[in-house]
Design a protein that fits this description.
Strand content: over 45%
Strand order of the largest sheet: 1-2-3-4-5-6-7-8-9-10-11
Number of helices: 1
CATH architecture: Beta Barrel
Distance between the termini: 74 Å
Number of domains: 1
Order of helices and strands: HEEEEEEEEEEE
Shape: globular
Helix content: 10-25%
Structural class: mainly beta
CATH topology: Porin
Length: 227
Amino acid sequence: MVHKFRLALTAAALLIANMSAASATQNDAQGWLNVTYQGHISDHWMGWAEIQGRFGEDIGRLSQLLIRPGLGYEIQPGLTVWAGYARVESITAASQIGENRIWQQVVWSPGKIFDGTFTTRMRLEERFQSNGNSTGWRVRQWFRYERPFQPGGDISLVATSETFFAINNTDWGARGGFDQTRNFIGIGMPDFLNARLEVGYLNQYINRIGPNDRSNHIISISLLGRF
């Protein structure tokens, strides 16, 4: 009887601990708008132009603005290497932090898999923030799968998953190890302005320093085009 009572107490303690951990996660509803165009500028050389506006605090105000140009080289069809620059402005009610990034990436699309298109991308970032002197190194691994709802159809199911790992600690707050994940599920629409319109739900889970991690529930709207 005593043994069963101890087991019950242990189970109750574990349940309370899990509930407390879940409740400690901070949640926010956000809206992210992304416009990205890329394409060939010669036989093998490619250009990349991207701008994002992210609206936080229940989509109440602009919380982050990102501009990311880049230059790529197509090694062979489906395999491209890139390098570029990004400027990120993070805005809160109390402050505004600017970040400069240098980035390199490899993008590979092996072709059709299960009647859909699979793409993977590995990106390396060197990050410099205005509130510190350290250089933050980060690796991002991204996967994407797109499959038409009907063979040859224009409307597709789109799913992506990206995991971020920080390589080192910095004096402006980055911590080495797992940083965040972004998982998206949505719909790809027919061509619009020489681009694909993708709309769906994105969850961003951030591993933060301190007791409270963060989970952002995002309405994501992207215009992905070619020039």
